[in-house]
Sequence to fold (443 residues):
Amino acid sequence: MGKPQNRKLQKQYQKEQSAAKKLKGNSVNSQKEPGLVFKIFKVILLMALPVLFGVFGLIMFPITNGDNANTTVTASSTSERSAEGYCVGEDCPQGKEPTIKPSQHDERTPITLQRKDKSSSTSDLDSDVPPEVRDFKATILDHLSIQDVVVDDRKVQAVELTSEEGRKGAATRVYQYDGFLSDRECEGLKRVHQRHVAETSEQDAIICFDGIHTLQKHLKDAGKNMQMSRKDFTEGTTCLNASMSSQLKSSFHWSHSTSFYPGESKFSKTFEDRIYQATGMLPSNGGKFQVTSYPRGIGYKTHTDCIVGYHDKRDRFATILVYLQDVEKGGETQFPELGISVTPKKGRAIVWNNMNSAGQCDPLSVHTAAKVEEGHKFIIQRWYYYKNFFQLGKRAGEPPIPSRNPGQPRVSCDEYEHGSCRWYDEWGYDHVTDYAAQKHSLL
Fold:
């Protein structure tokens, strides 16, 4: 710091010396003035040095108020989320739990974590949370209120399904309603579903997986001797590119699922009201409606609809499933731990709870969609959640990746041992790698 200042003063001294020479004839003391000026500047320089060093230090090492700062953590740093006073999940004050906020303009989906710091004001913590989300009042669904229901002036009775072969101590109960939907309603749902699948299937689907191991196992089942690695997924996803997806489409087989949401059709209101009358399940705790079709040879492996050991109560408490047509052979919904098997029949509904009254997933609720051996299977189902949330039952924005054409469908191949491949007409974030890493880190 000293040398640059000396050079500057030297130049200033030279200028003043030159000026002094010009004024030499005007004063007999003019030759002494340059020395006096230098002494004055030297004193000023010595006094200013501490201030100059202080400014330099602030530039190089700025002071930050870390105790009051909010921290945005991406997938690369979520492993540190429990350190330094961050709160996660149920440890956070009500309304301050971490939120996953998908962005249409960013390839990453950040999780905003709030510090547990008393000096942070409520307005600071809630600044990036929309008022409708912050002020949302959740409702709890912790039991079924099963009763008979009237459909088209017909009384439809509820029957509990039991078996002596089932394991004792299960919290799950399964109920059956024959004629829950009319023939006209079943045919209408099938017709709309088939037309939408046909229109959307004009483009080949992009095939996605929950990971590289699932991809490799599916390729082995298909008899494909291909060496695939994570590098074969498109950047930021666990999806194959469009070209590779088209190349492999004949090697994979899947069911088809189309969705509609509350308020998007008159039937959605009729259906959810009927469900409420029969089961007591509040429409506000219900998600989207899914119509799924299974061609011959397709089923869905043994799985639970809720997540065993999941601490978050925003999970699938109960499921209602209605068969839209008879199946010639196969296609049963089987509960192996309960000893229950339900044969598809047009209009027949089955309802069961996946969780107990405390909001814990019952592992004995596992069930299987048996493969269709002859014919074609169509169902409509809806999941109801133990604790609802603002976005439940609302159509969300879709992720910008992977790269795809407008309206291009996806095929999702879930965990190999407990899932199957399924075609969807909409895109979610489950195959965005940053989102998946963040979601699993909060379980």
In short: Residues 1-9, 19-34, 49-122 have pLDDT under 50 and may be disordered.
